[in-house]
Each structure stands twice: as C-alpha cells, then as structure tokens.
Design brief:
alpha+beta, 6-stranded mixed sheet, 5-stranded antiparallel sheet, 30 strands, globular, EC 3.2.1.17, Lysozyme
C-alpha cells in the first residue's frame, strides 16, 4: 500500500490573508502589512504616530521596525473621511514557514519537512514530535542560510496511513521551546489515478519557471500586488516582504494546493471525471495563472470537458449517502465482507443484471449496481475543441500577450504529452 502525505496546518493563520482592512493588526518584527495603493505614502496617507515602530512606502506597504504599539492614520481625499489602524509589533516568532513535501507520490521511503527560522536567533536544533507512532521524535542540527533565514530539512520515514499531530520544538539558548502544532495526514495512494490530487513536483517547477521570482512585493502587468512566484498579496494581508526562494516555493505550493488544486478536484469528482497527474497539473497551472472562475463561467471549456463521452469500463465510483456493503455472494442474504464509503473507486471484475463483481484492495465481492456510477476519462477529450478554447486565454489588460500564448501551448504539451 502506497501513501502520500498532505500537510493541513494553517499557513494563513501565521501570515494573515485578508481582502479588506481591519481596525487593528499584530505584526512580528520585520513583517509587513499591505494596505493597498489607495493608502500609500503619496495617496491619502496622513501620518504614523511613531515612525520608529513602523514605516510606509510608496506601494502602500507598512513594515514593522521596532516592538511597540502605534497607530496609522489616513484621510480619504474623496469622501473626506478619516481611518485609523492600530498596530502592535511583537518579537519575531521562532518559525517563519513550514512545509511537508513528498515529491514522489508512489514512494513512501522519505518525506521532506522544511522549516525556516530567522537567522538572528540562537536556534541550534529543530525537533519534530509526532503522536501515534513508536519512533515519534525527529531531531536535526543541519541547516543552511538563504537570504536572511535558516532552512532546516528533516526526513520522516514510512509513516503508516493515519492522521497525526506534529509539534515543532526549537533548541534555543540550550532550552527546547515548543514553537508550533501542525496537522499531517498520511493517506492511502492505491487509487491515485482517481483520488483527489495535489500538484506534482514537475507541475510546481513549471509554474515557478513561468511566473518568475521576486523576493519583494511588486505590481504585475495588470497592476496586481505580487511576491515570490506569482503569489498575490491582498489589501489587509500580513506577509514577509523579503523572502528567499525556498519560502516563495512554500508559499506557492501551499496556495496552489489549498485554493487551486482543491477547486479542480471538486470539479472533476463532482462530474465523475478521472485524469492523469499531467492532465491535472496542466489544469492547475492554467487556473493559477488565469484564475478558477472558468469552472463556473466558461461554458465552452466546461462543455468540452464534460463531453468526454467514453466511459471507463474498468472502474466505477461508489455513490451512497452512508456506506455500501460488499457481499461475499450476489445476494442480500450473503455475508458482508467490506464496507465502502462515498466516492471510493472499485475495479469492475464482472457485471450481472443487479450486481457487479468488484475488487477493492485485493478483496473480491459483490455490490448492488444502483450504487455504482460510471467514470469518464479526461484522456478522451475532443482535442481540437479543447485546445481552441484553452488557447484563447492569452490576454492581460485587454491586450494579447505572446508570453501567455506560449504558456498555454506548453500547458497543452503537459496535458496531452506529459511534456513538462
């Protein structure tokens, strides 16, 4: 049984991810708050009550310089209204970023855990403590410096399928200090072709190569605030305005899997469509670049995808509200040998009038036909129609952009040919 690993800690609880301004914020020393261009130094900004604690730049970014409490005031010149925001600056936390990464979905021999810490702290070791396993303590003193942060890499081996709570400790001034609690889920990977997916390592590298990298906030071709590998920064969002590539990679992968991969998975599973990893990666890269609104609004692409007529006859999906009994023989009087949950995938061995003989994890039995639904293979899509509508997304600011057209072409290469 293969396993894959999914991190479900809340990165945004550390960074903040707002779309509007609040009346108060807490920033770590060195963190920034994006107010938006409307509130930059040259527009509507009035004053910082203590400029030793905060500074503001021409892009509307506040940066914490010193611990303490202060206020920022703005005067809207159009509505003639005044806004005041309370800011508290606290000491740097021990951990900046955290990521669990498994690049090979079908390999369980090694799981990479990345932790970044500020360089100007006396941290000499990192310890991970997991529940539910015998060997539950993982310690490392190995780190490297990258643009003002230390990057720690810890390896976890052969975790059984389960959900875990992981505590992170740092050895600081010869004392172990608990510095975060995160969730980790090891999930069965035997149905990877059908199961919800994360973007692959190849998919992440493709996006990184096309987005380009910036360690600091900038405004892109359509005037959207961006950092790292194309990560959008929204007004009201707390962030680090000086990040190395490893933290930009963590931001990218976390954002893609939480907000893009999830929507692609929901769309495909809702419509009983199966796909390969490369097809999934192409749709995720496309959606990361143009947004996911096409899932709800672009009727032409949706209909082309849903018009995948050819049914995959080798597998079916369970469609029940609670669970489905798998019986030893094709009879309701026969012994129940397995219970299946909604959306689980089974291999079809044979089909009878009211029953289907199925195989699941090496167990062979019988299920009622009415609780099994067919699956559609994305590989049978109409190539000409799909390519035409897919390639039409090459505009920015109402202008044709050659770079976007080239990116769409390369995404189609990934989709059809697994060529990254």
């Amino acid at each position: 049984m293969f396993t894959s690993f999914v991190f479900f800690g809340n990165l945004n609880s550390v960074l903040g991810n707002g779309s509007s301004l609040l009346s108060s914020y807490v920033l770590e020393l060195g963190q920034s708050l994006f107010l938006g261009k409307l509130y930059c130094r040259n527009k509507n900004f009035e004053k910082i009550y203590d400029e030793k604690i905060l500074r503001i730049d021409d892009f509307g970014v506040l940066t914490a310089l010193k611990e303490g409490n202060t206020k920022v005031a703005f005067q809207n010149k159009i509505s003639n209204t005044k806004t005041t925001i309370n800011i508290s600056v606290i000491p740097k936390k021990n951990i900046r970023f955290f990521l669990v990464d498994n690049e090979e979905y079908d390999v369980i021999s090694r799981l990479n855990v990345y932790v970044t810490t500020p360089c100007d702290t006396n941290i000499t070791k990192i310890k991970l403590l997991l529940d539910k396993v015998n060997k539950n303590e993982f310690i490392t003193d190995k780190k490297f410096e990258d643009s003002g942060v230390f990057v720690w890499n810890v390896y976890l081996d052969n975790l059984p399928e389960n959900e875990y709570r992981m505590k992170i400790f740092v050895l600081k001034d010869d004392l172990w200090v608990e510095s975060g609690i995160y969730g980790l889920r090891a999930v069965k990977n035997s149905d990877r072709f059908f199961a919800p997916k994360d973007i692959s390592a190849g998919g992440v590298r493709f996006i990184m190569g096309h987005e380009g990298f910036s360690s600091r906030i900038y405004f892109d071709i359509v005037d959207v605030a961006t950092i790292g590998y194309g990560k959008v920064i929204y007004p009201g969002e707390v962030f680090y305005n000086e990040i190395p590539r490893i933290e930009a990679f963590i931001l990218l992968k976390d954002h893609v899997n939480k907000f893009v991969s999830r929507k692609i998975n929901d769309f495909l599973m809702k419509n009983n469509i199966i796909c390969t990893q490369n097809q999934f990666d192409a749709l995720v890269s496309f959606s990361y670049n143009v947004g996911t609104n096409w899932i709800n609004s672009d009727v032409k692409i949706i209909n082309t995808i849903l018009d995948t007529k050819k049914i995959n006859t080798d597998f079916k999906k369970v469609n029940v509200e609670t669970f489905l009994n798998v019986r030893e023989k094709a009879s309701t009087d026969s012994n129940v040998i397995l219970k299946l949950h909604n959306n689980e995938i089974v291999r079809v061995v044979d089909i009878f009038e009211n029953w289907t003989k199925i195989e699941k994890d090496g167990i062979i039995g019988f299920c009622s036909n009415k609780f099994l639904v067919p699956l559609y293979n994305l590989g049978n899509i109409n190539i000409e129609e799909f390519s035409k509508w897919f390639l039409s997304y090459h505009h920015a600011g109402n202008k044709c952009v050659l770079g976007l057209l080239m990116r769409r072409t390369k995404e189609l290469d990934i989709f059809y040919k697994c060529k990254y």
